[in-house]
Amino acid sequence: MDRIQAMQVFARVVETGSFTRAAESFNLPKGSVTKLVQQLEERLKVRLLHRTTRRVTVTADGAAYYERASRLLNDLDDIEASLSNAQANPSGRLRVDVGTSVARLILIPALPDFFRRYPDIQLDLGVTDRPVDLMADNVDVVLRGGELTEQSLVARRIANLRLLTVASPAYVREHGVPETPQSLEEGRHTTVNYFSTRTGRPYPHLFDKDGESLEILGRYRLSLNEANAHMAAVLAGLGVSQVAEFGSRPHLERGELVRLLPDWDRPPIPLHVVYPPNRHLSAKVRAFVEWSAELFARQ
């Protein structure tokens, strides 16, 4: 048994959920694919897949083996790419994780350009505002805002995200315009807050002016942890909040949001592209990192 081929075949069966589709992708008879998986199970002395007449599902042991095997297969691809002409034409599967608003408004609309440049890269895009563990979750690259706490990762700052203090016109008509940041802690005003998934605590609203810095939590009735839902709450008139300029700009232009406290700046949030140190030789990782840096430089 060719162990590498057996691992590749098993991984493709898991990814496609079908022996038939896996066989087609490798241009092999279905019987050969079935035999390779059976030989792999015999060698490992565990059941990797549950088979029925209608579908194939992975067992707990199979899922654990798939995670390790797919990581190894990706590393093998990267080793070959680093020693061949594939550097000029990166290929293979790339797992990227990105925040929801950045994905919807910036990254995804630009992906046609990425695939024109790199047609042989297959992108698995995880879209979530929750922090991910790159090593445990087998993620190649993440785009994340905020200061970095994990020193073992490689990070490159590609942008500074500016935030604006805004509210809906309906909110302003009902509650008035806050004259100072401290007004957000008074009785007539409410805020829409964003809370940390890790700690469960809401982030304060930050304000800078003439060397004075303020942290204002505000009187909030609603706190969320997903950027698109957070923006929807502000548009619905539920309170004052600070939102990314790139996301609020269209709403400001259409009159759906009103900018507040323009004399007070909110310190920008650094945006980093981050990847594990063992990915630094990967042609596909380097391609995505350079492309995303170029994308945000244009933005």
Automatic annotation (TrEMBL):
Keywords: DNA-binding, Transcription, Transcription regulation
Phosphoprotein is among the record's keywords: no
Pfam families, A to Z: HTH_1 (PF00126), LysR_substrate (PF03466)
One BP annotation, GO: DNA-templated transcription
SUPFAM superfamilies in UniProt: Periplasmic binding protein-like II, Winged helix' DNA-binding domain
Source species, domain of life: Bacteria
Keyword flag Transcription: yes
Domain HTH lysR-type: 1-59
A GO term for molecular function: sequence-specific DNA binding
InterPro entries documented for this protein: LysR-type_TF_proteobact-type, LysR_HTH_N, LysR_subst-bd, WH-like_DNA-bd_sf, WH_DNA-bd_sf
UniProt family annotation: Belongs to the LysR transcriptional regulatory family.
Protein name, entry field: LysR family transcriptional regulator
Lineage, broadest ranks: Bacteria, Pseudomonadati, Pseudomonadota, Betaproteobacteria, Burkholderiales
